[in-house]
Amino acid sequence: MTKVTIKEVARKANVSTSTVSRVLNNNYPVSEEVRDEVLRCMKELNYQPNGIARSLKNSKTQMIGFVVADIANPYFMQIAKAMESVISNENHSLVFCSSDGIPQKERKLLELLNEKRVEAMVIASSDPDGLYIKQLVDQGMPVVLIDRKLKGVDTDVVVEDNFNAAYQLTEYLIKSGHRKIAIINVALSISVGLERFDGFKEAMKHNDLPVEERYVFKGGFTRMEAYHAAKRLIVENQNHLPTAIFCANNIMAEGAVIAVREFGMKIPDDISIVSFGTVDLLELIEPKLTIASQNPYAIGRKAGQIILDRVNHDGNARDFKEYVITSDIIIRDSVQTL
Fold first, then answer.
1. How far apart are CA 170 and CA 272, in angstroms?
2. In what residue span(s) does the HTH lacI-type domain sit (predicted)?
3. pLDDT of residue 314
4. Which of 56, 97, 206, 315 is most deeply packed, by most CB within 10 A?
5. Domains and CATH numbers, the chain
6. How many whole angstroms separate alpha carbon 184 and alpha carbon 252?
7. pLDDT tens digits, residue range 260-279?
8. What pLDDT is attached to residue 160?
9. What is the pTM for the complete model shown?
10. Residues of the chain with pLDDT under 50
11. Which DSSP string do the residues of 143-190 spell out, in sequence order?
């Protein structure tokens, strides 16, 4: 007689194999209803768990999963480096994955990490709903969200002070005499995009300036998306160009600068540009951009410390906290005083 597998139990109970495993090992919370159904299916199928396999599954892997939206963004690489410097002190390793900003890919990566039995996860999510992340948290997986918050997901969070930094950066443009200010933003479905846009709008409102729809562009998260957004901004507003562009992240600033220069425009003589975050590609080129500084190293270290604390001491405790890393406005040479 063929031995019944855990996959067959999962299929019959209409749950994932990891849920069946949790019922077997009793290592993560599972609802009573789901537990009863899994146990019923095990009994009905006469499933016999492998004792050796179970002992292996109960061992700790000392692996921490890290899922980001864009592995090519130096911001996330610096966070990873800082995290690794913390967790490696206690012999933990980082498993680094990139979702490319695609929610479906993100979920598959999270499922894979869960199957590989990582002890905790650090996530910069691209999924506006975060339903699977909520499921992981509810099942007892230690999770730290970085860079982006998720509504309805109660867990530890380490983020930038996006609203205030965007407000201050916009305020600097206004105090420099700019009134027609464009913004190339990330998706508003992601908290970081919404908070930075809200900060931008609030600064404009505080100074009795309109946020004109023709000057609001979505740049996505890639250099190419921002490049095309900046080109559309210039082409569609040839007769009423803005005097300044606010780029809501570092990668988009790269794309915007490339587009502006392709049109033969000089920064800041013809148009001023500011960026949220350091633009590594442009650091060796003049003029250097005025920016709202970011501190990925502080974010990475804090995330690493939280994860180790959760893994070593209170992984299932519910006293979650939100840590906010403040920003400074670094004034350089990319803004003309009007």
1. 12
2. 4-58
3. 59
4. 97
5. 6-58 (1.10.260.40), 63-160+296-325 (3.40.50.2300), 162-294 (3.40.50.2300)
6. 8
7. 999 999 999 999 999 998 87
8. 95
9. 0.80
10. 1, 52, 55-56
11. EEEES---TT--SEEEEE-HHHHHHHHHHHHHHTT--SEEEEE--TTS
Sheet strands side by side (includes 329-330): 216-218, 181-185, 244-247, 272-276, 290-292, 329-330
The tokens of 191 are what?
Answer: 């908290």
Residue 93: per-residue pLDDT: 93
Contact in structure between 183 and 177 (CB atoms under 8 Å):
no
Query: Smallest Cα–Cα separation from 160: which of 172, 148, 169?
Result: 148
What does the pLDDT read at residue 316?
54
Taking every pair of C-alpha atoms in the chain, what is the biggest distance, in angstroms? 84
Reading the block at residue 20, the tokens are: 């069946």
Q: Please, which residues have CB within 8 angstroms of residue 218's CB and are 6 or more apart in sequence? A: 184, 185, 186, 187, 188, 225, 229
Which of 239, 246, 232 lies closest to 201 in space, CA to CA?
246
8 dihedral zone (left: phi>0; alpha: psi -120 to 50; beta): alpha
Task: Report which of 151, 87, 143, 99 is spatially closest to residue 125, judged by C-alpha positions.
Answer: 99
